[in-house]
Fold each of these.
Amino acid sequence: MEMMTFARQVGTAVFLVTLTLWIQCAGVAVLIRWARASIERGVARLSSLHAAVLMIQFSTLVIVLQFLQIFFWSLFYRWYCLPSWESSLYFSASSYSTVGYGDVVLPRVCHLLGPVESVTGVLMCGISVSCLFAVATRLVERESGAPPMQYVNGLDGR
């Protein structure tokens, strides 16, 4: 394992955060497109059961998306920082979720990456939750027959 300088840690962190953002944004874009198509297809028959199934499917896919991001961080940890896949995945999942048990730690030359993954994980989880909320809101609007909320906080240009 080669010694990482601070500048190299920062560069690595920037690369991993950028990769995480690309995965999140691409994944969320696909999920939103899928959810929108599912809602539009089921306009006439979107019962409470169908809406619940759609939310379960969407939530499951969001969780898979989060685990994909955790996996990419763990790849780096396995190659450069930690001795096994088990410890790499465990450390990445506990950092990403901000649990941070502390029983597996990165070598001193990589310490910066754990907190960066934690901050990134919080942001990615927040984005995912906001998407879940948007889908749930859309489903409630469909079920109640209310028109979809198109303009929020005067952003309609009026």
Note: The mean pLDDT is 87.
Amino acid sequence: MFEINLEALFDNYGMSKTFEKEFELLEDGIENPIKVKCTISNNTGIVSLNGKIEADYFAICDRCAKEVKRHYSIDMEHTFVAELQDETNDEFLLVQNNRFDLEELVKEDVIFALPYKFLCKDDCKGICLKCGKNLNEGSCNCEEEIDPRMAPLLSLLEDK
């Protein structure tokens, strides 16, 4: 937990604080530590956070099962408020008691930035469903199966 006291920032227009921190996140695939550098500033009464997260992510390709490691540079932009008029508003982060857990925010930003489907490359061909060969390394000798419902149509083409 990395709790930040924002009381001075809420009270002083023009004030800013810069933080650099390394975090250990207990999430599958994230190689620790991840690095965070951010600035929290009060500009005309609006307290905002701008920063960058550097993280390495290790995963298995969803198509070919190859192990892949990627580096992610994730932008952080958030606005803090001391109170909300509309409780359903998710554009602002409500700060209670002038304290905020930066570690939890970093964790959320990292998780949301990771891809839903992880591929070793955009044009990954996957593996052959019959023999299991990685098709990125070359084609296999398996014959393509014909849908049995299409067989009568194919026989029409063969007769010509």
Note: The helical segments are 7-11, 102-113, 151-158.
